[in-house]
Each structure stands twice: as structure tokens, then as C-alpha cells.
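ESCALATION

Customer reports they have been waiting on this structure for their group meeting. Please prioritize. Original submission:
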Amino acid sequence: MRITENTQSSLTDLCKFYEDNRITYGGASEFTSLLTPCSAEILPSTMEGIQADFRLSHKLYSVANALYKKSLTDESFSWIKHCVEGELSKERRAIQQLYADSQDLPKFIRLDYVTLEPKRQIAEVQWKSGGPGLFIGLQHGIEQILNGRSQISSDSQIIHAFAKALREVTGKSSPVVVNIANDKWITGEWYVAQQLRSHGIKYRPVYSGTREEHITIATNGVKVDGEHASMLIGQSFLKDERNSTIQNLYTSSKNGTILLEPPMNVILQQKWCLSLPFFNTQTDPDLLECRNIIIPTAIIHKESTIRDNIQCVANLTGISELSSIENIRDLMKLPLSVRSRLVLKHAGCGQMSSDSRGVFRLTGSRASAERIIDMAVTNIRDTGSSWILQPYVRQSNTIKVCHPKAVSDLYEVEAFGRYLLFGNTSVATSNNDYNCYAALANFSSHWKVTGSSPSQIPTERNKGSAFTDIRVISKAPSLCM
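Update from on-call: job pushed to the front of the queue and completed.
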């Protein structure tokens, strides 16, 4: 992957575009991320590989769902049942088993890579369209101001591509799409809704705090302000305590009157599935292929590892010391040189599974690492959650950035990347092939790349992240210097 600079770009205009349209992280009135004139460029062969990764990820979660169903009657898979149901109430377990039995997988997918070239490495699979307002708004600004977009999809513009994706997943030429969003995302959703009107799509953002004023749910479908919806985006109903609501959504989705995106199967929010390729006893060819694209992952459930899994991860990563880890507290026995090469992640649902709250490197002092592990143990005991262990992947790029309040002051940072690739499948096909319709890169000097804001003081240069586009190169680019 190469970083190239758009030398004719106007970051002042880009910042103004974002602020005028409220395409801001957290819905702030001011743009609160770093800006960059640079783009990430990848080879056509990498783009082809990403398309294959979508299919493999679909197969991985199909297998995970099938194994969960098997675990309901087969004690030898009890660890999978615990990973899925450990956090759920008795009532929710019954609902979960219904949704798992339907075998529905989402029409939208987002793969989060930590490296794209020379090796693609996926840290997480996100089965959602992923705050479409913000992410599509960011890419639309780059497209309009920086003249970005090159061969990611067959459509020349991101709004066109998203409109096409919505038609493909619903099978309707003029779908009514409802997106339930919290205050962090709602302003971006309004922007996309406005842009989609000219494409004949009614995109209806509904603030999660007022959803009951606008949305009615019955066994024959979902209505928004009295109009039948084609698709409902959002996971807030998973937190609804009224089983009648969940049952009605299940019935409506089962009879085809509403498309739920993603389906209300908690497996789609969990990370334990990433461990399935990494068992020495694994024989499925597709899951074995997943070893080439997913960061080696060990599962920790009920505070313990699984011998076959942790041994496989130890062999693949070359971290032989991992083979002795039987319990999460055994991680404290590792020397700092080994411990600092590991990342501990919350693998369940809930607050710790979003915004990287449950992602920790085991570096620093022994006392610091011990506090992290104590917290994880408490979480396991209190909520029934599972955790995963992955090796720390370090790959950085030199990229130019600037503070949104000092756009003329460009400076270089050595930045880690998070590469978000968005795909969708179509109801017209039965082979679960996904097309990539959008791509964004996020760069930060901090190893845990999130949508973090820079310092309020422009001269402080050690905080914040910058979003930019990913382009497929057709010729050798000039390097960003």
C-alpha cells in the first residue's frame, strides 16, 4: 500500500464541507478529527482479495451459527453455547435460539483490517452498514473536494453506490429504509437521507430516544410514521426488554415483510467466532483459508483457554510461551517482552464491545497489566462474557495531517492504520457474493485507531485520527513526502 498526496486539494474547503453538513464524529458542530491531503492506494490484486475475504467471512459466521445450534444438544460444544448465551437472560436465550435457527446472515458487511499490503490482516468483522451517514458523508466530502474515488466499485460516486446497495439488499427499486441512530450518528444520517432523495430512496433516520414516537412494530411488519418500511437498520432493539417487540420483529422478518439489518442474532456482535479457524483440529478448507486473512485468535471463556486453540495460535504466531497459558491469569507469568506482543479483547456484546472500550494491550508495568486482567476477570464473572487474545500487529505509514483549526500547518506523523471495507450482497443472488461499495482508511499515531479527536490546542500533535479514502491504483503513484 502506498500513501499519495492530493497536491491540489483544499483542506479548508473539506473542513467547511464537513461542518456545513454536520458530518462530524459525535454530531459536533465543529469537525473534530484531523485532516489529511493524502490517500491510501492499493493494488487491483488486493481489491480482488478483499472481495474473496467477504465470502470467507460469510462462511466463517455461517459455520459459527451452525456450531452454536449444534451446541444446544451436544455437550462437546458447550464452550460455544456459553460464549453465545453467557451474557443473555433466560428470555433472551429463547429468542436467540429462534434467530439462530433462521440462519439469516446480514446483507451488509464491514471488514476492519489493520494491514492491507503486503498481507491482508482482519482484526474484526462488523456485520452492519456501520454508521452509514458518517462514513459515507466522509467519503462524499473527499470525493467532492479531493477528487477521490477510483475503482473501489463500478459506480463513480459513493452516494450512487450506496443507493444501489440499498436496492440490491431489499430487492426494491424505491425502498423505505429506517435507520435507528443515537446522538453520536444522527446528524450524518440526516445528510445521507437528503442525498438519497434524488435517487428515489426514502432513507428515514430515527433518533433512538424517540423511536417509539415514530416506529410501530407488529407481526405484519414495521411502519415509520404510518408508512411500511422495507428495511430496519440498527441494533437498539436487542436491548429492548419487551419480548413481544422481539417476537414481532422475528415474525415480520421470517415472513419477509421487513428486512432486519443486521438480523437480531447476537453471534453477529461477538468476536469468539474469529477463533474458529485457529484449532489444530480444524479441517474446513474455507476456515483454513481464513488463517491467511484473520489475525490469529485464541478464545478465553470462563477464564480458561482451550488447549487445541491456544497451541495453534502459539504455533502460527511463533509466540511459543502462549502454549503454557491455561487461564487468563497465566498471562501475568509472561515476561514483558512477550506480554507486550498481545492484545486482549472483549468478545461479547454490551458497552465494552463498542468504541474499542474493551481492547487492551498488555504492555507497561506488571501492575498496569494486572489491573487490565483483574477487570477482565471481573467482567467474565459478573456478565458471563468471553474474551479473545490476539498478537499485536504493528505496521505504520508516514502521513501528512493537520489540525482542523490550523489547516495550513501540515506535519508528518508515523501513523497506524485501520482500513474499513464495506460490502453488500443482493437478494437477486444466492451465492452470497459481496460487492465492495465503499472504503475508508483511518490513521492515528496511537496503536488503537479509533475516531478520536485531536487536542483543543493545534500545536499539540500527539492526539487524534484522520479519515481518508482508499483508491485502487492503475499506475505507479508519486509518494507522499
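Sent to customer with the following note: The chain has a mean pLDDT of 88.
Escalation resolved.
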